[in-house]
Amino acid sequence: MERRTGKYGATYVRTWHAVLGVLLAGGVLLTGCSATTTKENSAMDRGGAPGPAPAAGGVADGDGAKGAKKQGGLRESAPPDYLSTFALDVDTASYGYARRTLADGNLPEPATVRPEEFVNSFRQGYRRPAGNGFTVNLDGARAGADGWSLVRVGLATRAAPARDERPSAALTFVVDISGSMAEPGRLDLVKKSLGILTDELRDDDSVSLVTFSDKAKTLLPMTRLRDHRGTIRDRVDSMEPTDSTNLEAGIRRGYDEAVDGRVEGANNRVVLLSDALANTGATDAEAILERIGSARREYGITLFGVGVGSDYGDALMEQLTNKGDGHTTYIADETQARKVFVDQLPAHLELTARDAKAQVAFDPETVKQFKLIGYEDRKVADEDFRNDRVDGGEVGPGHTVTALYAVHLKDGAAGHVATATVRWLDPKTRAPHERTGSVATNAIDGPLWGGDSKRLQVTVVAAYFADALRGGRLPGAPGLAELARRAEELASQTEDDSVRKLATAIGQANRLKGGGGDNGTGGAPEGEID
User: What are phi and psi of 158, to 5 degrees?
Assistant: First the structure.
């Protein structure tokens, strides 16, 4: 018997045999088939009680195991510590900002690089569900380092509706017009973006417009588009940069307008367009969000952040949107603005899942160690997976969410590797639902490079690239020159321009790091994965 202290100070007693008994009593299936298996349950049918997802092999995160053994400096997960739990994240701003920084001839600050946002910037090709909720897709490949594999957990929502089929929208635009927005690629790009969006919105959509510098001002109360597009364009054209950045005042006024102009049955959103360089009023995300907490809780109004500028407050924007029940993206030019406000608009306006979380349970019979690549800011205590009062992520139609794990299998391992469970709340009824999937060793033992799944290879390239920018060395990671070459090949094979741009960004990073001929394979020895 083992007495342990949980992540939040609760003392509890567990017996490994008792855990196995509970798992077996719960009807957990350890499958050895190579295909991903999925199962959907209404959590209400299972009581919806807080606690870890039923899964083979354990009940705590492998990166933070208490009492774990060390081998060569590497923490080895000790039973029953085989759970990994995180809130879903569909942000892509980190990748967009990194591309902009590299194009300007600079390496991004490691603190602004979030691997999950690099990975989630690319199409994955997952199966999609017919209705609200998720499909759960698991696959992987050998990492090229001794004993290590990469396991991809892919979640997908239903396809985004056509323009005429989505629900109407009520959008409050909160626009930064402070002095820093005078730089080319900031307020001028915001104006172009709002012009694009005004053309894309329908007559039954509504918009309001708030600007802020040292103070906030309402330029347009909530107005149904119909015959008012000209008025909206005039208000947008009138915006000029001035004074300091009181982001708190802008968000506060924006939420006041969103609540006052709330349209029943519509998708009500606050859309913040800013370089997020707050220097007046409250400049801390917690303090800013405290002012508008009731609007989020009572009316379900979410925050969509659109970042601009070569000097960009990445950390503040991410915190605001994560805690504001929303997500963020970054735009550097008109092409990206059109992608966000035309191609991806339904995904940014509608919700198919609230407070979505994922929990992956690794099987201690086959898995020696694992590491989730990224999601450091989105981790959730394992025991809070089914605690629906604990914040998760908001996900819209057409989105995919990918988590990539480095997994060290035990010698001679065969059979079940991991079971992934996603839990979410229905956006309207708040009823909880779950879906699960699993993967076995024979689905992840093929070679990565040259394998059949080109999208898996793109995922790995993006993750390796992000980790290299942060100074890490993941198992099997090649040097940047080799990684750029892999991305170029994948761009040709997939005919995907976004992958070609990834190859360009990797090449730029390689040159800035003084590379050029590095085709050697990196990859950390065991002790360097923590």
Answer: -65, 160
d(CA 66, CA 7): 9
pLDDT tens track for 410-427: 999 999 999 999 999 998
* Torsion of the alpha carbons at 271, 299, 355 and 291, rounded to the nearest 10: 70
Tokens matching residue 163: 């323009």
Question: How many Å separate Cα 192 from the centre of its chain?
Answer: 26
Identify the bridge partners of residue 70 per DSSP, sorted by sequence position: 75
Name the β-bridge partners of 71: 74
Q: What gap in Å lies between CA 241 and CA 235, rounded to an integer?
A: 14
Handedness of CA 388, 389, 395, 396 (dihedral sign): positive
**Beta-sheet pairing, 416-425 with 432-440:** antiparallel
DSSP β-ladder status, 353-362 and 83-87: antiparallel
pTM comes to 0.83
Write the DSSP assignment of 181-193 as a string of letters. Answer: GGSTTSHHHHHHH
Quick count: other Cβ atoms within 10 Å of Cβ 377? 15
Mind listing the pLDDT tens digit for each residue in 82-91?
A: 999 999 999 9
What is the per-residue burial (b if ≥16 Cβ within 10 Å, else e) of 442-466?
A: ebbbbebbeeebebbbbbbbbbbbb
Tokens representing residue 175 in the block: 């626009």
As a whole number of angstroms, the distance between CA 30 and CA 57 comes to 10
DSSP 358-376: EEEEE-TTTEEEEEE-S-G
CA distances from 508 to 102, 163, 465, 503 (A): 6, 37, 12, 9
| Residue 381: strand, helix, or coil | coil
Which residue, among 416, 409, 415, 434, has the nearest Cα to 359 in the 3D structure?
434
Distance of CA 401 to the CA centre of its chain: 6
Single-letter code of the amino acid located at 180 = S
Task: In whole angstroms, give the CA distance from residue 374 to residue 92.
Answer: 13
CA distance 82 to 369: 9
Tens digit of pLDDT for each residue in 57-79? Answer: 332 334 433 333 433 333 343 34
Structural tokens at position 153: 């957990």
What is the tens place of the pLDDT at every residue in 438-495?
999 999 999 999 888 999 999 999 999 999 999 998 999 999 999 999 999 999 999 9
- Cα–Cα distance for residue pair 328/94, rounded to 1 Å: 9
Residues 369 and 93 sit within 8 Å (Cβ to Cβ): no
